[in-house]
């Protein structure tokens, strides 16, 4: 009997070892596939095939932000919602039709995501200079970067012009502003980063995956950590990406429960929001995600969290006695630390399961697959 037990134990150990090896092999294969896809992306992908692509995208983003500054935050969010659902493949841009159900009607997106028309307009401009060369997924990735850089620049530019015109002759102001030293303009914006390019567009989209993979504003820290971890993003990446809430606005329906029912919220802050967000009605009323500097891309989002002034539940859980507290404090203390972590996180997010090579297609119109 003892011999039989020993034999059974040995067989069990061997079986467990085989299963563990298979599991590890599967993980290695998945990581290798993701790395291979990312390795095919390149910052110089369009240098020869469409050398004016980036300039064309930037001009389109600038025009959109000049019309509505909030659009900068919307484009960053659109890129996030694209990458988190089956990878950065432009699937979020596909509009529903009579025979096609995409991601735009999913609960996290419905009557919430914005900017698809801006990407459509930019795509039209890019198509005019390079026919069926630049993917919608890449346009969205570049537009998100350009939005971060431009949003602070646009606001600060206007403010600085007003100050200069009060104290200096118009001619001198003009020379300062439109002269050759463009470095001054660059230094006014948010952080920049090199966008890797070469993504291709999906031919499908999944409403179900959008509802499963996008974090709702009710998520706690554990839910958020797990969801981001599933996308190979660290807690630092998660906290840094959440810092995009330093710009943009949210609808009342997403923060109503927090301002009426939660206790880890600044009382004055909550009271100030209730006037525009009643307990019933006013679902689409807007409030800035960062009340301190709503139109500037900076690190004040994190100082807001430390004062219990996070607008969304999923914002405040980042600083609520949990494992993200130290990262929040680090970013609140140092804008440079936040900027570095944010740009790294955006690159990491942009590398989530891109379609490359012969996968997918280059759409002619971002809102529909090629016929």
UniProtKB/TrEMBL annotation:
Cofactor(s) for this UniProt protein: Ca(2+); heme b
Domain (Plant heme peroxidase family profile): residue spans on this chain: 40-370
Binding site for substrate: 215
Gene Ontology CC annotation, any one: extracellular region
The keyword Cell division belongs to this UniProt entry's keyword annotation: no
GO biological process per UniProt: hydrogen peroxide catabolic process; response to oxidative stress
Molecular function GO terms recorded: heme binding; lactoperoxidase activity; metal ion binding
EC number: 1.11.1.7
Residues annotated for heme b binding in this entry: 245
Function: Removal of H(2)O(2), oxidation of toxic reductants, biosynthesis and degradation of lignin, suberization, auxin catabolism, response to environmental stresses such as wounding, pathogen attack and oxidative stress.
The protein's name: Peroxidase
InterPro entries (alphabetical): Haem_peroxidase (IPR002016), Haem_peroxidase_sf (IPR010255), Peroxidase_pln (IPR000823), Peroxidases_AS (IPR019794), Peroxidases_heam-ligand_BS (IPR019793), Secretory_peroxidase (IPR033905)
Cofactor note: Binds 2 calcium ions per subunit. Binds 1 heme b (iron(II)-protoporphyrin IX) group per subunit.
